[in-house]
């Protein structure tokens, strides 16, 4: 049954209206340029992830279950059905803590948008590069707004926001990619939203944490495809007082702000709030690593010079990354702040080469991590979502010197975005693990020249081996 817009679903309907009506010409030039760099980065992350153990388990398992060959598994010669390809490819993007993050909205956006959208482009050839970019922008705009609505409490109470919020980004992009009208887009979001799930306990070592983004992308894709076919969803999925996303995923009514869902929609572009990572660890750790980097520029010191380090941050930082490290696998290593501090001090970086299975239980790293304490700073928490990664760091050295730094946002964040050259360098460094250099260069040029691409399915073809 069709559902007309009423005050009962004002926010869900307004979002659907934005998604269904968005045109390439509506997107400011700076947003178009930024999203191409963001998407290029995500594809590099996925190609690096193609040969990771947890991704290979998914590829092998689904390959035995699914004999379809509609869509590419990026960085491989495998093919799967569109939903299974979205699941695997999203897992690959998020597979090694290298992908983007909307810090205030607490969402890895590319990992949920691109697998769903490229699956549509590949299974229905003819989507132009301009249409693809427009659909991607729709996805990059919607999910972070749901995150801003929910606030830091959402992840603080144990939901993995990338998985729960991600269904809306994926559903919006897929709906726009399919050209759904407003009504069916409402249903696409409603079908996607009821599939939202993801538990933060996965951060303590479970491989399944890597799969959360892929599952969200798959759910968003299902939402759009099923809505196109006539299945109805929850029309007020975000704002329903009983069983809606916001009320169900928050402890109380005063912990979310529905107005954030549509505030400045079409004028304030959340795509510009997405930051990239140049450390291979969770975003909550980056400000502390930047603080240490700055301190070492002031005065050179190494692990032997450290008596102890104190990091004061938000409640989210405490809960998310501040726990005492125990060797439980690479997932927990990349998410744990004391371990990452120890790694940085010992090796001078925290990129892909610094995280190996052999180092998870390294006694030297563990001993050094015990010198790192993480404490709650109520004043930082009170500043709200935009300051959730802010830290005050004190490095107490063995000679009695104390170095102090306050860092509000990572050095390569939305406030100081990376140069095109830096993004391309990171992409090529990651993509070359899966593809020969000439193919990497063609993929790079296709994404940076996306508006000229006659068929966005070329992106998938360029990621197949």
Could you list some keywords that capture this structure?
single chain, 2-methylcitrate dehydratase PrpD, 60s Ribosomal Protein L30, Chain: A, 4-stranded mixed β-sheet
In total, the number of domains comes to 2
The succession of helices and strands, N to C, reads HHHEEHEHHHHHHHHEHEHHHHEHEEHHH
Low-confidence stretches: 1-5
CATH superfamily of the largest domain: 2-methylcitrate dehydratase PrpD
Give your account of this protein's structure.
By secondary structure, the protein is of the alpha+beta class. The protein has 2 domains: 7-278 and 430-461, 2-methylcitrate dehydratase PrpD (Orthogonal Bundle); 283-407, 60s Ribosomal Protein L30, Chain: A. The protein contains 21 helices and 8 strands. It has helices at residues 10-21, 29-49, 53-65, 82-93, 110-123, 129-150, 153-156, 161-164, 166-178, 182-193, 208-229, 245-248, 286-298, 315-321, 330-335, 337-347, 363-369, 378-382, 420-431, 437-448, 457-461, and strands spanning 71-72, 79-80, 101-102, 274-275, 306-313, 372-376, 391-397, 402-407. Strands 6-5-7-8 form a 4-stranded mixed β-sheet. A two-stranded antiparallel ribbon has the order 1-2. A two-stranded antiparallel ribbon has the order 3-4. The longest helix is centred in the N-terminal third of the chain and has 22 residues, at 129-150. The N and C termini lie far apart (45 Å).
């Amino acid at each position: 049954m069709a559902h007309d817009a009423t005050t009962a679903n004002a926010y869900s309907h307004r979002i659907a209206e934005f998604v269904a009506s968005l045109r390439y010409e509506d997107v400011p030039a700076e947003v178009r340029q930024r999203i191409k760099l963001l998407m290029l980065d995500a594809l590099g992350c996925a190609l690096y992830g193609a040969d990771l153990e947890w991704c290979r388990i998914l590829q092998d398992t689904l390959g035995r279950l699914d004999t379809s060959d509609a869509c590419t598994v990026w960085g491989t010669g495998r093919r799967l059905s569109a939903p299974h390809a979205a699941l695997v490819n999203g897992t690959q993007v998020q597979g090694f803590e290298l992908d983007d993050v909307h810090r205030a909205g607490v969402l890895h956006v590319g990992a949920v948008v691109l697998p769903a959208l490229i699956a549509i482009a590949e299974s229905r050839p003819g989507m132009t590069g301009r249409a693809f970019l427009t659909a991607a922008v729709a996805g990059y705009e919607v999910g972070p707004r749901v995150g801003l609505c929910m606030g830091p409490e959402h992840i603080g109470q144990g939901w993995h926001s990338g998985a729960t919020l991600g269904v809306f980004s994926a559903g919006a992009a897929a709906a726009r990619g399919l050209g759904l009208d407003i009504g069916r887009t409402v249903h696409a979001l409603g079908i996607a939203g009821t599939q939202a799930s993801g538990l933060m306990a996965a951060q303590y070592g479970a491989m399944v944490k890597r799969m959360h983004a892929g599952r969200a992308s798959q759910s968003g894709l299902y939402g759009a495809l099923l809505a196109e076919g006539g299945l109805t969803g929850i029309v007020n999925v975000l704002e329903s007082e009983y069983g809606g996303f916001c009320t169900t995923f928050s402890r109380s009514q005063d912990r979310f702000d529905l107005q954030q869902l549509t505030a400045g929609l079409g004028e304030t572009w959340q795509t510009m709030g997405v930051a990239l990572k140049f450390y291979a660890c969770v975003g909550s750790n980056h400000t502390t690593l930047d603080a240490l980097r700055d301190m070492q520029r002031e005065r050179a010191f190494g692990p032997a010079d450290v008596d102890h380090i104190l990091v004061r941050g938000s409640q989210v930082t405490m809960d998310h990354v501040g726990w005492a490290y125990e060797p439980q696998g690479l997932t927990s290593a990349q998410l744990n702040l004391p371990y990452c501090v120890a790694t940085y001090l010992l090796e001078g970086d925290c990129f892909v080469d610094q995280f190996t299975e052999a180092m998870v239980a390294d006694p030297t790293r563990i001993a050094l991590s015990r010198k790192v304490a993480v404490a709650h700073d109520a004043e930082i928490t009170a500043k709200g979502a935009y300051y959730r990664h802010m830290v005050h760091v004190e490095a107490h050295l063995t000679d009695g010197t104390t170095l102090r730094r306050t860092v509000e946002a990572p050095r390569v964040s939305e406030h100081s975005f990376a140069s095109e050259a830096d993004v391309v360098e990171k992409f090529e460094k990651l993509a070359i693990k899966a593809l020969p250099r000439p193919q990497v260069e063609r993929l790079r040029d296709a994404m940076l020249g996306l508006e000229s691409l006659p068929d966005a399915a070329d992106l998938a073809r360029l990621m197949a081996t």
